[in-house]
Design a protein that fits this description.
This protein has 27 helices and no strands. Among the domains are: 1-109, no CATH class; 411-483, no CATH class. With 483 residues, it is mostly helical. Helix 15 runs antiparallel to helix 16, helix 18 (321-333) packs parallel to helix 20 and helix 22 runs antiparallel to helix 23. It is globular and about 80 Å long. The longest helix is centred in the first third of the chain and has 17 residues, at 60-76.
C-alpha cells in the first residue's frame, strides 16, 4: 500500500453509493490503492452505520466496519473535524465512553461557523440520536434561518418534524408538513407516504393524519394514509370510512385496492371483491388483482369464477405462484387432484421451498392414495421447519384421517416438545385423544389448552363438533362461556 496516500491516484467520482462501497471493500480486501476524500469516507460511515435511521440496531460486524472506515479516514485526514466528530460518536455507540462523556466532548468542540452547514447538521443529528432534542432543535433551527436553498430547507424541516414527533406534538408536525409542501419540491404522495412509514404504529401517527385530512380535505393521499393508519391499529370501521372519502375524491385505483383488502381482513369478501373489480375497471393494468379476486371468490365458494380469475392472473404472469396455488386449491376442491398436482408442480419450479406448495401437494397425494409420499413430505418439512405449527398440525392430522389417533397424538406431541405451550397443538392433541376414546387424557389437554389461551376454543370445537356430545367437555365449555 505504498501509494495509498497518493492523492494523484484517479478519483473515480463514484456514480452511486453502491459503487463507492464496492470500491472501498475491494480496496480493503485486495490492498488496492484507491483515492477517497473526506466526503467519501463520511458516506461510507453513514452507509455502514445506517446513520440517518430513526431507531436501529447495529450488529457487531457493522460496528467493526464503521470503526475500520474511521481508522482509514483519520489516517489519511487526521485534522478533518467531521471525522473527529464521528469518531467521538462511534466511541459512544460502541460503549467505550459514557453518554455523559460524549456530551462533555461535544460541548468542548470549537463553536462551528455557519458556513460549516454539514458539520452542524451531523452534530444536530447526533444530538437527536442520543436523546437531546433541545440541542438538536437549536442547531436545526439556526441552520434553517440561514439557508436559502429549498432542497436544504426541506431536509431541515424533515429533521425538525422528527423532533416534534419525539415530543408527540402533532400540531407542530403539521406545521412542518405545511412548510415542506410550500416549497413545491415534494408532493402529497411522497411526503404523506414518508410520514406514514416514519410514524408507523407510533402514538403520534393517528392524530397527525387526522389533522392532515382536516387541513388537506381534498387530498386523496391524506385520506388514504389515514385509512391505513386506522387499519394498523385494528379500527377497521374507521379505516373503511376514511378510504371511502379517498375513493370519492379521486379516480386513482389505490384507495379502492386498499379498501378491498381491508374489507377482506374484516371478513367481508363480497364487498372486497366489488372494490377490487372497480379498481381494475379504473386501471386495467392492475392485473395483479386477479389473484386476490380469485381468492375472494374461492372463499365465497364460487369456485368456477375463482378459477376464471386465477386463469387470468396466470395468463398475465405465469410466475404468479399465488395464482398457481390458488388454482391448485380450487381444482382439489373439485376432486381434480391430478390437475391440482400439475399446478403445484409448476409453482414448485418457481419456488422449490414454498411451504404452501408442499403442504398442498401432501394433501393431494393423500387423496390419490400416495400416502407414503405424503408422509415423506411431512417428515422432511418437520425437519426443515420444526417451529412451523401448521406443519405439525397437517402432519398429525394425516394420521387422524386414517384413524391412527395414537400416532396423531405422538406427532403432535413431537411438535409440542419444540413449540412448548403452543395452544393450537394442545387443543389438537385434546381432539385426537377424544377421537381415540381417551377421555381422561383429552380432558387434561383441553384444560391445559384453555389455561394457555382460552380464546382459541373455537379451533378445538370446529375440528370435531361431536366433542360437544361428551358431557365433561360440554360442561367445561359452558363454564368457559359463562353459560
Amino acid at each position: 500500500m505504498d501509494d495509498f496516500l497518493n492523492t494523484e491516484e484517479e478519483d473515480f467520482g463514484w456514480s452511486d453509493e453502491n459503487e463507492l462501497v464496492t470500491q472501498y471493500e475491494n480496496m480493503m480486501r485486495n490492498q488496492q490503492s484507491v483515492f477517497f476524500d473526506v466526503d467519501d469516507y463520511q458516506e461510507l460511515y453513514f452507509y455502514y452505520m445506517n446513520f440517518y435511521a430513526d431507531v436501529y440496531f447495529i450488529s457487531s460486524e457493522l460496528l467493526a466496519k464503521g470503526r475500520a472506515v474511521l481508522h482509514a479516514a483519520l489516517a489519511q485526514y487526521p485534522n478533518a473535524e467531521i471525522l473527529q466528530l464521528l469518531q467521538t460518536y462511534h466511541l459512544y455507540i460502541e460503549n467505550r465512553i459514557t453518554r455523559v462523556m460524549l456530551l462533555e466532548r461535544l460541548e468542548k468542540l470549537p463553536p462551528p461557523k455557519l458556513e460549516q452547514e454539514h458539520f452542524l447538521h451531523v452534530l444536530a443529528h447526533i444530538y437527536r440520536q442520543i436523546g437531546e432534542p433541545n440541542k438538536a432543535f437549536s442547531l436545526f433551527s439556526n441552520l434553517l434561518e440561514n439557508t436559502d436553498l429549498e432542497e436544504d430547507r426541506v431536509i431541515l424541516y424533515y429533521e425538525i418534524m422528527m423532533l416534534y414527533e419525539m415530543a408527540e406534538n402533532a400540531h407542530q408536525v403539521l406545521e412542518c408538513c405545511q412548510n415542506i409542501l410550500k416549497t413545491g419540491t415534494v408532493t402529497h404522495e411522497v411526503l404523506f407516504g414518508e410520514m406514514y412509514e416514519y410514524f408507523f404504529l407510533k402514538p403520534i401517527a393517528l392524530p397527525v393524519f387526522e389533522l392532515l385530512t382536516k387541513q388537506y380535505t381534498f387530498s386523496m393521499y391524506a385520506w388514504l394514509y389515514l385509512g391505513k393508519t386506522y387499519a394498523d391499529i385494528m379500527l377497521f370501521d374507521e379505516s373503511v370510512q376514511a378510504l371511502n372519502y379517498a375513493v370519492a375524491i379521486s379516480n386513482h385505483p389505490m384507495p379502492l385496492i386498499l379498501l378491498g383488502r381491508i374489507l377482506a381482513i374484516a371478513d367481508k369478501p363480497l364487498e372486497a371483491f366489488d372494490c377490487l373489480q372497480e379498481a381494475l375497471q379504473r386501471d386495467p393494468a392492475q392485473v395483479g388483482l386477479y389473484t386476490e379476486m380469485g381468492e375472494l371468490l374461492y372463499s365465497l365458494d364460487d369456485t368456477q369464477r375463482a378459477m376464471h380469475f386465477f386463469t387470468l392472473a396466470i395468463d398475465a404472469n405465469n410466475n404468479d405462484i399465488n395464482a398457481l396455488l390458488g388454482m391448485a386449491l380450487a381444482l382439489s376442491s373439485l376432486e381434480r387432484y391430478d390437475d391440482s398436482i400439475a399446478y403445484i408442480m409448476r409453482a414448485k419450479k418457481i419456488d422449490a421451498l414454498s411451504l404452501e406448495a408442499w403442504l398442498l401437494l401432501a394433501d393431494d397425494y393423500i387423496e390419490v392414495n400416495r400416502d407414503n409420499e405424503a408422509v415423506e413430505i411431512f417428515q422432511q418439512l418437520a425437519k426443515q421447519y420444526p417451529k412451523d405449527v401448521d406443519i405439525w398440525l397437517s402432519y398429525s392430522n394425516y394420521y387422524a384421517m386414517v384413524e391412527d389417533f395414537e400416532q396423531a397424538c405422538t406427532v403432535a406431541k413431537q411438535g409440542l416438545a419444540i413449540l412448548q405451550g403452543n395452544p393450537y397443538l394442545l387443543y389438537r392433541i385434546a381432539n385426537y385423544c377424544f377421537l381415540g376414546g381417551d377421555i381422561s387424557q383429552g380432558i387434561t389437554y383441553l384444560r391445559l389448552a384453555i389455561h394457555t389461551n382460552s380464546h382459541y376454543i373455537t379451533f378445538f370445537v370446529d375440528y370435531d363438533e361431536n366433542v360437544m356430545q361428551i358431557p365433561e367437555v360440554a360442561e367445561i365449555i359452558h363454564l368457559l362461556k359463562g353459560e
